[in-house]
Each structure stands twice: as structure tokens, then as C-alpha cells.
Design goal:
The complex is a heterodimer. Chain A is mainly beta. Chain A has helices at about 1-15, 15-20, 185-190, 310-315, 420, and strands spanning about 25-35, 50-65, 65-75, 90-100, 105-110, 110-115, 120, 125, 130, 135-140, 145-160, 165, 170-180, 195-205, 220-230, 235-240, 255-270, 270-280, 325-335, 350-360, 385-400, 405-420, 430-445, 450-460, 470-475, 480-490, 500-510, 515-525, 525-530, 535, 540-550. In chain A, the strands form 4 sheets. Chain A has a 24-stranded antiparallel β-barrel. Chain A has a two-stranded antiparallel sheet with strand order 6-7. Chain A starts with a helix and ends with a strand. Chain B has helices spanning about 1-20, 70-90, 105-110, 125-130, 160-174; strands spanning about 35-40, 45, 60-65, 90-95, 120, 140, 150. Chain B is globular and about 45 Å long. The chains are: A mainly beta, B alpha/beta. Chain A: This is DUF5723 domain-containing protein.
């Protein structure tokens, strides 16, 4: 029965192929293969299969407004860092849709974001193992110039098991409208002001499966956002309220959740300034109240920190946002000292400063009777921060091109991380570290460049795993080859047998949109940048081959 | 699994049939820019399929504020951009894939580096997915007819010359 159905649709497809030939196809593929070894020192174990592979092929077809696409996925079995419930090969994503200037409708799987994503964001970040795509229908309308209405309805992907998608029980539905007032009012369009605003509503339904509590089966969230800009100043913000949403994350409390994000900035030639603030309270919002980690998230709470790329600064003590509550601030300054000045040198000097911090919120329990039946656990106010530090990062980097051949970049980071909250290692309390990085680039000629990084990390009081160093050399031959060797060493670990070295060599070859990379060695987890690409990788010891291709 | 292989072979057959039927006109894999609605830095919605450069070559470069090689590439091209534009009229559109964690940094970064590129924001990766981009930096070259003629997924110092050679090829063909 099923086969005949498929045959029928194949026939239809074949008949349609003459029509199809007018359209265009695009897509990509990615394969990551690992052959892993036992390595007791870093607690890496060789899996029974010895080798692991993740593969994806995306195909998108478009023809005069009509669109369709699919992604085949294979986990045989999944590479390190992926949950083992990702297994098998099969169709992981498919959609059909139509788009013109007025409507954009998609049936099947889709990704979407409302506003900043605080209330709703379904997205894919394969390197991080995040894929909370929707399965359902999305209808977007652009009824007037400058007005966008988005609606979504569906279930979210939770897993990919035995070659097919597993979706959450909960249903997610929502609508969002955004107006760009400058496209509405000619007077505003000709002024130096820019104003836009939007509002969202998202609701989830999940059956009450709890025998002890009466759980709300429908939980709504709503909020608005606005951006005002005048010349080179801008300020924008989004405020979201979430109704009662008892979940495993918040300990089944019946508080409302709220989240506020604010950004303001100014920029001109040679100078950029951004300040941001965030107040989050009870904002874990998932389509499955029992889900954890990265699973089934409806909203996206960004961490207000700079995304570092140097190995030690990025991978050892990173911050993750705290959906149950945090008050965070960030400031960024990017400045270019003019070329031809004494300080700026011949080519000018780039300076960037960044400061970010996050604190626990005050949760006032004095007006709350813990024994009443409301299960409202505390009162809280926006931006009411406790003394308890979650995170602080001050960093500065200075980059200067000395001449045609040499470019130097020096960076310093001071990072304090509350390990009682973030629980990255076994150490207690706040881990504070100084990190220094010297990055030297030497251009041998037009095509050949050599670059080296020397990095050091020192924890205050030799806390946690003590001191680290990383040395990296990278040699690139434009446009198609790169070679790199890296050693990361925990030379200062207070426990002598844990003074582990992580050596790694990587060779890559690029043919336009095709890229093959072979790495061998020990790898610590984290955001890993090599040969011109950054991606998130888990820890391992062995051979990793990755292949990407776009078509 | 059986159904799946049937589906795949059908799709494959279809492609083969198509490539025979095509002749030299326009292949299925002859890629043009897909239609995605993106915002620019002042909040206007731009249809990516309508990006053009009046018959002259156009570069689309995917980048992010946290991607060091991307910034290296675009800053390097920035120094050469005036000459490139004088010689070929090429236009560069830089598509930021920064999500909300870093999106507010895009405009101040771009302004502080005085980039003259048109900046588009792709915070949820819609255009990235439609263009088949795996990782950033990924740079595409589009000819005067809107056809993607070259792409490169990496940046190493010197790659800008390779890119510009392709731009020159396009302008010399004319």
C-alpha cells in the first residue's frame, strides 16, 4: 500500500520534471567521521563500533515561488557530543511551500524566529547538536509595505531515532507582527529617525500528566519589542511575559516568567559602542515540561557575553545563560586609532574592549507563604540583582599591522565564573583566571602565510585545574591548503597526573565550496577555530575527518 | 528504509532524465540566488532574489562578528574595495549570521571599520540554509545575470586575489 503510494507520487514527480527543470536546486552536504581511541587520561573511551559518523545532505528546490526541500541524516552511530538517541539514517527534514510578495506558506518542517527569539526561536546549530525545528505549518503575510505577520503551528523536533524524527508531545503555536513605521509614514522616512515595533504571542499545549499537581495544559507567553534609531544612535528592547509554566527546570513553581533585553549603541567611522542589559526570571520555555539541556526549547535566551575564539578563552570557562534567573550587563567598545598617527602607526591600530557580567536575581520570599496552594515561590523585580556573582569578563585586544608582512595582535582576558552555578568542573566557588594571547601573522608572499598563537591561562590561587598554555602554528597556502599543529597543555594542574597535553595536527584542502579536513590527536571540547573556520567540537582522541560540500 | 531508497532512486532518476532533457540551456544545478526575506541594518526588508548589480559582478559573503577569519577577509577586501569597484564595478553584500547573542554588535562593528558593503542580517540562518552554506566564511560570486559562478568556503590570506581573479574574468568576458 505504502509502496504503491510512493510509486504514484514518483510518477507524478517524473511528470513534473519538465516543469521542475525550470527551477533551481541548491544544497549542501556535511559528513564528520571519527575513529576514536581509548584515552584514560581524558576519560575518552573507544566506542564498540570504533568509528562514528554523522552525515547530512540538504536539498532545496525552488521554482517561481514554489519551494520544497529535504534533509537526509545519518548517525551510524552519532559522533561524540550527540545524545545516543540520535541513530539510524533517514529523512530528518522536509517541507513544501509557496512564496510570493504577499504570502509565504510552508508545510512540513521549518525554522522561524519571532523578534529577538526570546519568545520563540526554532533553529539549527548542528555543531552544538541543537535542532528544535517545527513540524507543522507556517504562514507569513506581508499585507502592507513594512508590515510582516508570522504564524507558526506545530510540534518541535526532540530527537532522531532509528532513522526518523521524534517530536515532542507539546504543540506550539504563535503569531507575531512587526511594523516598520518608516515604510508607513513618508514624513518619518525622510527624517533621521527610524522606528519599528512588534508584538508576539506564543502558546504551548501539553497534557497534564502529573498525578500530584494540577498543571496548566496551555501556557501562553506574550510581549513586545521596539527599536528607535536616530542617525547613528540606536536603542532597542524586547519584553516577554510567560504565564504559569511549572516544569522540571523551575521546580514546578507557578510563578509567571519575565524577560527583558535592552541594547543601545552608537557608531561612527572608527568607533563602535554597544551596551546591553538583560533581566531574566523563570523564562525556561519548552514544549515538554520535563525536557532538559538543549531539548525542546521554544524561546532562546542569549548569553550576554562576547563569543571568544581563542582556544583557552573560549573553551575552558564559558558562560551559559541561566533561564531560571539572571541579571546581566555588557559593554563593548571597538575603536580604530587612525593610521598615520604616532599611536596608530602606518596602518592604524584596532582596539577592542569588552566587559560583561551576570548576577543572581533577588527572589523575595518574605511575602510568600510556602504552604499555600498557589505554589508561587517568590516575588522578583526586573534588574534586582543579588550579590552573588555568576560571571564577569573583562577583555581587551589590540591589533596592529606593522608592515606588509607582519601583523600582531595581543589580547588579555580576566574571567570570573561561578562554578557552583555553572558546574563545569568539580571546583567550588568562583574560578578567576587571567588569560593572555599573542597572535602573530607573517605573510611570506601573496599566497603563503604563517600564523602562530601563544596563549596562557592562570587561575587565581591555582584553583580548579590550575594553569594552561596553548601553542598553535598554522600555515596556509591560498586558496586551497592549510596545515596546523596545536598543543594545549594543562601544565599547571595541581594534580600531577592530570597535567595533560592535548596535541593535534590538522590538514585541510579546499576546492571552492568543497572542503576536506583531516585531524589527528587529542582534542579538548569547545569552540575550535582552525584554518579559517570556527565550530564547536566535543573532546576526543583519534582521527577526525570532516567533509563539507555546497551545491 | 525500503521506501526511502525508492524515493532517493526516483529523485536520482529524475535528475538524470532532466540533465538529458536540458541540453545546454539552463541546468538544474545552475544556481541563482534563492528568495529569502532579510532585513538590512535600517530594518528594511530585502528580497535576496532581487539583489543585483546592474549587470556587473556581485559578491555575497557570509560572516559573523565572532568569526575571526570572516572579519579578516572583509577587512582585507575593504582595503582593496575602492580599486576593485573602480576597475570592475563589483558590489559586495555581507550577510551576517550573528544570532541575538551578538546581533547588536553588527552595526557598530561595521561602522567602526567603515565598511561600504551592504549588510544584511540573517539571525536565524534562513538565507544561509537556502544558499547551502555549511560554515562561515563562505563567499559567493554572482555574475551579471544573477548566476552563481564561484564560491569559496574558507579564508586564508591571499584568497582575495583568487576571488578578484574570478571577478576580473567576469568583466573581461563581456
Amino acid at each position: 500500500m505504502k509502496i504503491s503510494k510512493i510509486l504514484a507520487s514518483s510518477l507524478l514527480l517524473c511528470l513534473g520534471s519538465t516543469v521542475l527543470s525550470q527551477g533551481s536546486i541548491s544544497g549542501n552536504m556535511e559528513s564528520t567521521f571519527q575513529y576514536l581511541l581509548d584515552d584514560e587520561k581524558i576519560d575518552a573511551e573507544q566506542p564498540d563500533e570504533k568509528a562514528l559518523i554523522n552525515s547530512y545532505v540538504n536539498v532545496n528546490y525552488r521554482n517561481s515561488g514554489f519551494k520544497a526541500g529535504m534533509r537526509l541524516e545519518a548517525y551510524l552511530p552519532a559522533i561524540l557530543g550527540y545524545p545516543d538517541r540520535f541513530d539510524g539514517a533517514g529523512l530528518g527534514y522536509r517541507y513544501v511551500g509557496y512564496e510570493n510578495d504577499l504570502v509565504d506558506v510552508t508545510v512540513g518542517n521549518f525554522y522561524e524566529q519571532f523578534g529577538s527569539g526570546l519568545i520563540f526561536r526554532s533553529y539549527e546549530d548542528r555543531a552544538l547538536g541543537v535542532d528544535n525545528m517545527m513540524n507543522g505549518v507556517s504562514l507569513n503575510l506581508r499585507p502592507y509595505k513594512g508590515v510582516t505577520i508570522k504564524t507558526v503551528y506545530g510540534r518541535q523536533r526532540f530527537s532522531f531515532t532509528e532513522g526518523s524524527n521524534v517530536y515532542t508531545d507539546g504543540i506550539v503555536r504563535g503569531a507575531d507582527a512587526e511594523i516598520n513605521f518608516n515604510q508607513w509614514f513618508p514624513k518619518l522616512a525622510s527624517s533621521n529617525f527610524r522606528v519599528s515595533a512588534g508584538g508576539s504571542f506564543v502558546s504551548k499545549y501539553q497534557e497534564d500528566n502529573n498525578t500530584q499537581l494540577v498543571l496548566p495544559e496551555n501556557t501562553g507567553a506574550y510581549g513586545g519589542r521596539m527599536e528607535v534609531a536616530y542617525k547613528k544612535f540606536f536603542i532597542n528592547g524586547e519584553y516577554i511575559i510567560k504565564e504559569q509554566d511549572p516544569s522540571q527546570d523551575n521546580g514546578y513553581i507557578y510563578n509567571y516568567g519575565k524577560g527583558l533585553l535592552l541594547n543601545a549603541g552608537y557608531s561612527q567611522k572608527g568607533l563602535g559602542i554597544v551596551v546591553s542589559a538583560k533581566s531574566i526570571d523563570n523564562m525556561s520555555f519548552r514544549s515538554d515540561r520535563e525536557a532538559a539541556l538543549q531539548d525542546a526549547t521554544i524561546g532562546f535566551i542569549p548569553a550576554l557575553t562576547k563569543t571568544h575564539t581563542y582556544n583557552l578563552a573560549a573553551t575552558l570557562y564559558p558562560y551559559a545563560s541561566q533561564p531560571n534567573g539572571e541579571v546581566a550587563y555588557q559593554a563593548d567598545v571597538i575603536y580604530k586609532i587612525k593610521r598615520g598617527t604616532k599611536l596608530g602607526g602606518k596602518y592604524g591600530t584596532d582596539v577592542s574592549l569588552n566587559f560583561s557580567t551576570a548576577y543572581a536575581p533577588v527572589q523575595n520570599t518574605s511575602n510568600v507563604n510556602p504552604l499555600d496552594s498557589t505554589r508561587v515561590a517568590y516575588d522578583s523585580k526586573l534588574f534586582d540583582a543579588d550579590d552573588q556573582l555568576y560571571w564577569r569578563d573583562f577583555n581587551v585586544s589590540i591589533k596592529r599591522k606593522l608592515n606588509k608582512k607582519w601583523t600582531l595582535k595581543g589580547s588579555y582576558f580576566n574571567i570570573s565564573m561561578n562554578n557552583d552555578v555553572l558546574k563545569l568542573t568539580d571546583a567550588k566557588g568562583i574560578i578567576e583566571s587571567h588569560i593572555g594571547v599573542l597572535d602573530v601573522q607573517y605573510k611570506i608572499n601573496r599566497k603563503n602565510t604563517i600564523r602562530a598563537e601563544l596563549q596562557g591561562l592562570w587561575t587565581i590561587d591555582n584553583k580548579d585545574r590550575g594553569d594552561w598554555a596553548t601553542f598553535l602554528v598554522e600555515y596556509t597556502i591560498s586558496p586551497d591548503w592549510f596545515f596546523s599543529a596545536l598543543i594545549q597543555s594543562n601544565y599547571g594542574n595541581p594534580v600531577e597526573e592530570d597535567q595533560i597535553h592535548y596535541p593535534m595536527v590538522v590538514v585541510g584542502k579546499i576546492w571552492g565550496a568543497t572542503r576536506l579536513q583531516v585531524g589527528y590527536g587529542r582534542q579538548n571540547e569547545g569552540l575550535f577555530c582552525v584554518g579559517g573556520i570556527c565550530r564547536q567540537v566535543p573532546s576526543s582522541n583519534g582521527l577526525t575527518v570532516s567533509f563539507t560540500h555546497s551545491f | 528504509m525500503k521506501n526511502l531508497s525508492l524515493l532517493i532512486s526516483t529523485v536520482f532518476l529524475m535528475f538524470t532524465a532532466n540533465s538529458f532533457a536540458q541540453g545546454n540551456d539552463k541546468g538544474l544545478l545552475e544556481k541563482s540566488i534563492p528568495e529569502v526575506q532579510l532585513k538590512n541594518t535600517v530594518g528594511d526588508v530585502i528580497n535576496t532574489a532581487k539583489l543585483h548589480n546592474d549587470g556587473k559582478p556581485m559578491i555575497i559573503s557570509f560572516w559573523a562578528t565572532w568569526c575571526t577569519p570572516c572579519k579578516k577577509e572583509l577587512n582585507t577586501i575593504h582595503d582593496l574595495y575602492i580599486d576593485w569597484q573602480d576597475e570592475t564595478g563589483v558590489r559586495l553584500v555581507a550577510v551576517s549570521i550573528d544570532d541575538n547573542k551578538t546581533a547588536s554588535r553588527v552595526v557598530p562593528y561595521v561602522d567602526s571599520k567603515s565598511w561600504e558593503y551592504e549588510i544584511l542580517l540573517d539571525p536565524n540562518g534562513d538565507f544561509k540554509r537556502a544558499m547551502g552554506v555549511n560554515n562561515v566564511p563562505h563567499t559567493f560570486l554572482i555574475d551579471g545575470n544573477g548566476k552563481i559562478v564561484y564560491s569559496h568556503n574558507n579564508y586564508a590570506p591571499g584568497d582575495e586575489y583568487e576571488l578578484y581573479d574570478h571577478v576580473l574574468e567576469l568583466t573581461e568576458e563581456k
